[in-house]
């Protein structure tokens, strides 16, 4: 980060020279840069620096002007926006800056719609409690979701103070997380928190099951009680345990944390993330004799050979097949036309970004 961006009041929230360049034409139009902390039915809370005093504060703004029928284009926690602070009766979000990364999951239930969890994330921190036997299949799912977002996954095994053999579990999890750092931490004793802090210098989104210790970890990183940790399970009207806020929490040493609500299920949305999450299988498949090998009975199949000699554990293979089927199902159910349009649009955006460095103004 250059001295220029470091001096900006919002640099603690991830503002940098690239954002400033994207924003330049909007600044000329008298708009103020803001980072979206929370979105709530046509309104959102944004973090802005007061144009006069430079004081950073959260204001409520009308986000309907950037609303879009496509849920994935709607404003989301972590998005950068251009806000008209002088609008009456309340500030208005006039434009969104182009997104870098985004965490998208399939909504629960039978529908194949995507749900945006957070945008412009550098690190997806997957919290897994050591207090229960690790569910490797679930961690693989989270990893695929994380890779799919475009951000770097990181795993934190939490509540290390509650177990004796954390290293044993760490080895298991490392075995199913190729290319991913797996840390053992405890918010209670402080174990591993410094290392974690060093890994979370950009924007970090915390994901994990309810009760994995995400909010407690956020507090430990922030060094203060910024999140309300629920000691007692609170239950919404459908009987589910939820954390309803996903605010942006600035860390003392730089970096921002987004604490997402506990995820019971993570449906995969898209498939590229799977290839990353199971990279050793992709590598094996590259060695199969036939390019279109189905890894079921073909001679010279490197995947079958690895399953037979045990280098590829059966559980791992089955998990891969299951998640692949699931993501193929979603791909077939999702509106193919819509996806194609989106891809085209992103291409155009990238092109125009390269050409004029101009931000996208949402209709
Ligand atoms: N012993 C111990 N308990 C912890 C630790 N971290 C969290 N806990 C406890 O685990 C419980 C759940 O922690 P939370 O931080 O609320 O979990 P969460 O992942 O944010 O849960 P949701 O808000 O439902 O998504 C709380 O009772 C915490 O006190 C730890 O390092 N050690
Ligand atoms: Zn094969």
From TrEMBL:
GO molecular-function term, one example from the UniProt record: metal ion binding
Binding annotation for Zn(2+): 288, 293, 295, 301
Keywords: Cytoplasm, GTP-binding, Hydrolase, Metal-binding, Nucleotide-binding, Ribosome biogenesis, RNA-binding, rRNA-binding, Zinc
Cofactor: binding details: Binds 1 zinc ion per subunit.
Cofactor (UniProt): Zn(2+)
Signal peptide: none
Domain EngC GTPase, chain residue ranges per copy: 119-264
Top-level EC class as recorded in UniProt: hydrolase
Entry EC no(s): 3.6.1.-
Assembly and interaction partners: Monomer. Associates with 30S ribosomal subunit, binds 16S rRNA.
Similarity comment text for this entry: Belongs to the TRAFAC class YlqF/YawG GTPase family. RsgA subfamily.
Protein name, as recorded: Small ribosomal subunit biogenesis GTPase RsgA
Protein source organism: Kitasatospora camelliae
Organism taxonomic ancestry: Bacteria, Bacillati, Actinomycetota, Actinomycetes, Kitasatosporales
